[in-house]
Design brief:
Length: 111
Amino acid sequence: MNDVKFNVFSGGTVTIDHARCMKCATKVCVEVCQTVGNGFILGLNEDGLPHLIVDEQQVARGACVEDMGCLLACQIKGENAIIFDLYMPEYEQALKELEEKPVYMRSLREN
């Protein structure tokens, strides 16, 4: 079984874990993606699993709006099968320059 992995305009990637999708009854990621105003890039393949319905080059040029609606829907009503790996060098640099770590980066002993 092949996962779906594709590049997005921001320079990051999106991966959909088909092993998890097989356990999903809702396939809510596709429903959210096909909502007016979203990218409309996901559909279901012959096995009932999410796949790209547009060319990967179109997705990399911005067909995926990167709103993370599919990710959130999958976490709430699906099987947590979607991973967004977005490249954000400014954010990483800002974290390095902080005098104190953000709460989510601290260990329990530090709090």
